[in-house]
Amino acid sequence: MLAIDGGNSKTDLALIADDGSLLASVRGPGSTAPNGSTLAPMVAALAAKAGLDPAAGPIARHTSACLANVDLPEEEAALSAQLAELRWTDTSQVLNDTFALLRSGTHRPWGVAVVCGAGMNCAGVAPDGRTARFLALGHFTGDWGGGRWLGSEIMHAAMRAEDGRGPETLLRERVARYFGESTMHDVAVAVHQGRLTDEQVITLTRVLFTAADEGDPLSVALVDRQADEVFLMARSVLDRLDLAGTEVEVVLGGGILASGHPLITEGVETRLKEHAPAALPRYADVPPVAGAALLGLDHLGAPPEALARLRTNY
């Protein structure tokens, strides 16, 4: 089975035996528009590592690919068909990468997952196979939060503190110092001129958590808002799939949640406990590519010992 986890910053591929053994793995560059062309060199490298030739025929029975920026069911279907035409495997299934996080953190093929990293998304699968998800395309689809959003909010608050439009906050001095500048004015000019990139601004969540730990009211409010947004996504999916009264596993992943910072994790878990007392918060202990692989083994009807062996391999 060919497992693929494709993100914006990196793509992980693995070739998995029917018994869950890891035969070969490679890591390649990420892509904002994953497709057969961007994946082909990585599949070739993976096949070569396993002593196989994709030009000679299928290298496995099934492809399980979980890819970022494949946001709509029709996009998943179109890309599944595209991969099928390449004949790397006999069958192919493409899903949004949130489903890889979900399966990597659950001990069953159903549950709920919320990812809060650079962006945010959430998806759920019910025991009967029903799914619930979000468009997660930005502000216009109801979203708030994630590293990109928080970076902008942190800059906004620090700048307004400096020029007098907003309340004072530790972020004013901390953000400037973090980027090696004297003032927020200088930081803003650096962003405007392209000397500071969006990827650098995303890392301001580190500054935010430190300031919140020190009791900065504005920072505490931002972290609390982020915790609430994570919970609201989970609550929506739990309710839509009628899972709030069950022992459903709720996987919390992505850089911000995986950091384990108590201000964010306790904020989410407390709210979750009030709404769904039997729900089980989980933090994935294997990478998302393992989630894609587990989905593939589910598709092939692999026995429990194969699923356990795969987790052990990661």
Describe it.
The longest helix is centred in the C-terminal third of the chain and has 24 residues, at 217-240. The protein has helices spanning 36-49, 73-86, 98-105, 147-163, 171-178, 184-192, 198-202, 205-213, 217-240, 255-258, 262-275, 288-299, 304-313; strands at 2-6, 10-16, 22-29, 60-67, 89-96, 111-116, 120-125, 131-133, 249-253, 280-282. Strands 3-2-1-4-5 form a five-stranded mixed beta sheet, sandwiched between helices. Strands 8-7-6-9-10 form a five-stranded mixed beta sheet, with helices on both faces. The mean pLDDT is 95. By secondary structure, the protein is α/β, with parallel strands linked by helices. The radius of gyration is 21 Å and the shape is globular. It has two domains: 2-96 and 285-313, ATPase, nucleotide binding domain (Nucleotidyltransferase, domain 5, 2-Layer Sandwich), CATH 3.30.420.40; 111-283, 2-Layer Sandwich (Nucleotidyltransferase, domain 5).
Short description:
With 314 residues, this protein is of the alpha/beta class.
Overview features:
314 residues, alpha/beta, Nucleotidyltransferase, domain 5, 2 domains, five-stranded mixed sheet, 10 strands, 19% strand
